[in-house]
Write a structure and sequence with these properties.
single chain, alpha/beta, Rossmann fold, two-stranded antiparallel ribbon, 7 helices, globular
Length: 250
């Protein structure tokens, strides 16, 4: 892994969301200074958004009552076979929770442009039309949009003054490493944690193909040497080993 993506110091981090996949590490001051959370990429897991305990909106192109009902029905009928994938009770409780906060979700695909007919929404629209009076340095952004993050990196830079912190899941790292480094260099927030998502696999050099990277505005340094993985990091897939990051100059 390129040394340019290694945190410069050790920071005080919090784990928010699930213990494994769906949870991310956030720098403490970013969490404390946030008034509003934007969650891009939800699918059927909004544990991060709820555990953040701030007002939020979640954007996802799949999430809907119909989508969750389908998951429940599949899980219910699969209990009569050996092909059970989901827990029916878990899926049912997901529906109940979704219905209680459904006004916080937008069913759309995040991109660098708007097209309501095709279901595309831009970060510009989220900031200018959906969030009411965003305050500079008070909005946290989480992005897990399965490769589409590269489409919105320039828009993130345009609205970075509003951001207290960011967590981005970068996909296809082997093809986009230079884009990630360029974005991190231009961003006026500090890279505070990096973690390999072991669901994504590795390339021929054993470098991860999916990375979770956390950024923070004015993070509090608690040490000179970052601990990677952090003690709060967990394998996304509990059935696989963590992917160890080895940083080099190349």
């Amino acid at each position: 892994m390129d040394i340019k993506l290694k945190p410069k110091h050790q920071y005080e981090l919090l784990r928010i969301g699930n213990k494994n996949d769906g949870g991310y590490l956030v720098e403490k001051s970013s969490f404390q200074n946030t008034d509003f959370l934007i969650g891009l990429g939800i699918n059927d897991d909004w544990s991060f958004e709820k555990n953040f305990k701030k007002d939020f909106i979640g954007v996802d192109n799949q999430l809907s009552f119909k989508f969750l009902l389908k998951n429940f029905l599949i899980s219910f009928f699969s209990i009569f076979s050996r092909a059970a994938i989901f827990n029916p009770l878990y899926c049912f409780l997901k529906i109940i929770d979704y219905l209680s906060i459904r006004d916080k979700f937008i069913q759309a695909t995040v991109s660098n442009y708007d097209n309501s007919d095709l279901g595309f929404i831009s970060l510009k629209t989220i900031f200018t039309k959906i969030i009411k009076n965003p305050i500079k340095g008070k909005v946290f952004l989480k992005s897990d949009i399965e490769g589409s993050e590269y489409r919105i990196l320039n828009d993130i830079l345009k609205y970075e003054d509003f951001l207290s912190g960011i967590v981005i899941e970068f996909h296809d790292v082997d093809l986009n490493k230079d884009k990630i480094i360029d974005f991190s260099n231009k961003l006026n927030l500090e890279l505070v944690n990096i973690h390999a998502n072991n669901f994504g696999g590795v390339d021929s050099k054993n470098n991860p193909l999916v990375l979770e990277i956390s950024y923070s505005r004015n993070p509090k340094k608690i040490g000179n040497f970052p601990k990677i993985p952090n003690v709060l990091d967990r394998p996304n897939d509990t059935k696989r080993r963590e992917v160890n990051l080895i940083f080099t100059e190349k």
